[in-house]
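Hi again,

Forgot to attach this to my earlier email, sorry! This is the prediction with adenosine-5'-diphosphate bound. I've pasted everything inline since the attachment limit keeps bouncing my files.
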Amino acid sequence: MIKVRNLKKEFIQGQERTEVLKNVDLNVEEGEFVAIMGPSGSGKSTLLQLLGGLDIPTEGDILINQNHLSNMTEKERTIFRRKYIGFIFQNYQLLPTLNVKENIAFPLHADGSLTKEKNQMILELLDAVGLKGLGRKHVNLLSGGQQQRVAIARALVNNPSVLLADEPTGNLDRNKAEEILGLISRFNRESNQTVIMVTHDIFAAGFADRIILFKDGVIDQVISRKEDDYAKYVANFMA
Ligand SMILES: Nc1ncnc2c1ncn2[C@@H]1O[C@H](COP(=O)(O)OP(=O)(O)O)[C@@H](O)[C@H]1O
Ligand SMILES: [Mg+2]
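Structure tokens for the complex follow:
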């Protein structure tokens, strides 16, 4: 369902050219949960941005649900993103002046007048992420873990087929991280959502089916969580 071919991305600042992604080839199956790990600055966030159509590659192509991202105009990419992609970030990226429900409704372009159906869906999502009854609360009054739950509900409100998460538990302690990862893997299993998650944490990566080890803009190794010793292996790689 996701095919990445010969992907390259370089940034040019003044005279300097940085090749951030060098030659990335990757296939992800529908419903698969993939973790991407690698040192800081190796290009993980850049890859996620390209996968979500937030930025365009220098070369190469990304195919998602039969859509070639490279052929799209910016406007088409925006529409594509709304239809197929949910994003979750390390720092939640909620709108601080809005309440929980308004934040979740935001991708629906709701101007306050939600249809009955959409309203019902938001209530169900609130329940699913463990925030029942908190819809009218301002998001800046919530704990980090609660804010990330709001962000997950917001990412899911369009029922995207692909969930992209960039270090979603990076700001949370172990217990809160486990709850958030439990939620993400539950949606992955129950809604067959494809999940691509960047993480520094081997514990978080253990929720994925496959772990992609990224280094200097290329995929260095791909390992299965089911392999014995995967944790030791990854720890050595990251060290
Ligand atoms: N918009 C940008 N302009 C210039 N350089 C960038 C930009 N975004 C990322 N980079 C550079 O690309 C490299 C990889 O960044 P990033 O993808 O954020 O890495 P990671 O998420 O693996 O830590 C870094 O050297 C970073 O400085
Ligand atoms: Mg990053």
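Residues 2-238 form a domain with the Rossmann fold fold (CATH 3.40.50.300). The beta strands are 2-13, 16-28, 33-37, 59-64, 67-68, 85-89, 162-166, 194-198, 210-215, 218-224.

That should be everything now.

G.
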